[in-house]
Amino acid sequence: MTEQRIKKAVFPVAGLGTRFLPATKASPKEMLPVVDRPLIQYAVDEACAAGAETLIFITGRTKRAIEDHFDKAYELEAELEQKQKHEMLELVRSTVPDGVHCIYIRQGEALGLGHAVHCARAVIGDEPFSVLLADDLIDGNGREVLCQMAEQYAEHRSSVLGVERIPNEETHKYGVVSAESLGERVYDVNGIVEKPSPAEAPSDLAVVGRYILTPAIFDELARTPPDAKGEIQLTDAIATLLRRERVLAYEFSGRRYDCGSKLGYLEATLDYGLKHPELGPAFRDYVARQFR
């Protein structure tokens, strides 16, 4: 199956990261490192693996560090080159692959994920695009999750929501879909509810931070009223999009770490540290000694 390249990727990164204060008082939560790479770098690498050529960051006032991370660091590169630290130089230069460029759009007010996605409308135009939430770090077991989803888009030419099965008591944290199976891991969505109680949840399939969306979502976002908190929810717009066109859910293969929570972030740091090509063996020995 030939994969459909999704050439534009949206990264909503304007959130304040209050659950990680004071670490995020002056530094974006997306720049928190998991071993030696920030969260946003993992998301960017995943988008680029699926064919992204334009990276659209929906930013806020305190997010300059993200722009600096993906910008060219002339002084640092010159120093590394002078000292012949070629491996480090390549790491610094490879934050964005050749041929990929970044666009930064300021979200003036924190009006929800749906509003953040709608901010990218002028840049996206009439193309399908992906949305990646850096808080959700996903180890795709050797195959990036967005690549898995792009294959489904190539076959069906429909919006694709990344989903995973969750415990019933956690439905209030997620958008949850009602869907019928189309085959292995693929579902035809017939409804979606934002943060339902366990008693009201239509299934145990929760939407997590990966989306491939058709441009029709923008009209729905423009018509979506704010919720009780004054935010425009992407889930609500997807619910109305279902009346116009097909939407699929894909139960991806991989392990998701909820790095928007401290526990999930620590779990990711531990697991990624254990499998790090340079540090892994020594770190594994250290962890083993702690539990003797």
UniProtKB/TrEMBL annotation:
All residue ranges annotated as the Nucleotidyl transferase domain in the record: 13-272
Keywords: Nucleotidyltransferase, Transferase
EC number: 2.7.7.9
Gene Ontology BP terms: UDP-alpha-D-glucose metabolic process
Keyword Nucleotidyltransferase in record: yes
Catalysed reactions, as listed in the record: alpha-D-glucose 1-phosphate + UTP + H(+) = UDP-alpha-D-glucose + diphosphate
Signal peptide: none
Molecular-function GO terms, alphabetical: UTP:glucose-1-phosphate uridylyltransferase activity
InterPro entries hit by this protein: GalU_uridylyltTrfase_bac/arc, NTP_transferase_dom, Nucleotide-diphossugar_trans
Domain of life: Bacteria
One Pfam family, short name: NTP_transferase
Enzymatic class: transferase
Homology family: Belongs to the UDPGP type 2 family.
Reported function: May play a role in stationary phase survival.
UniProt protein name: UTP--glucose-1-phosphate uridylyltransferase
Species name: Alkalilimnicola ehrlichii (strain ATCC BAA-1101 / DSM 17681 / MLHE-1)
